[in-house]
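Subject: Sanity check before I submit

Could someone independently write out the structure tokens for this chain? I want to compare against mine line by line before I put it in a report. The sequence has 216 residues.
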Amino acid sequence: MAGQSKRATRQPDITVRRAWDKELKPFNSQITLAEYDPEWLGYTTETERMRRVLGPRALQVEHIGSTSIPGLVAKPIIDILLVVADSSDEPSYVPALEAAGYKLTIREPDWHQHRFFKGPDTDINLHVFTLGSTEVVRVLALRDWLRNNTSDRNLHAKAKRELAHQKWRYVQNYADAKSSVIEGIISGQLRQGEKSEHLPIFVPIFVTMSTGKHVF
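---
Independent answer below. Compare away.
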């Protein structure tokens, strides 16, 4: 849907929880990044639990974000993508997730019907989208591109380190800066004429404003 990916249009429903409040408070600090940990890529506890809890309703479960990219520094929080038939149909999956301990913290009906949960016993970010959403395609394409393109992965890692050392008034400012870096990588590839079936759908980039950071 036209305009859905623009950050200005995203108005999360904070009546679910007051989780959005923390993003409005000044951060005034540097960002702490961790060196890549091979255990991140082998993280299966949450994916197995979601498949067990939802069964066939979990159409796709993927590890996304910086922790899913071997060699990339990251905030040590696992981001997981859950694809369901219709993320706006909360009765079909939310009660089951909540019964398993997941907490629905943010609802974004005007942004691809995005739903955001925190994990029951581990600090994870769970993003729920509808099957066929362009955001699902974008985030997986970007993940796969950075996994397979060493130069762009190194460029992104360098930029993340430099940005993390700066002092940020709000965590979201850091997220915005990372988005610019990613878009620069994509634009550079397009200008150079390097072809990939994934590149045209990268822009605009998947930005998780709800969690105060870009997932990559």
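---
OP: Matches mine. For the report I'm noting this point. The chain has one domain: 8-211.
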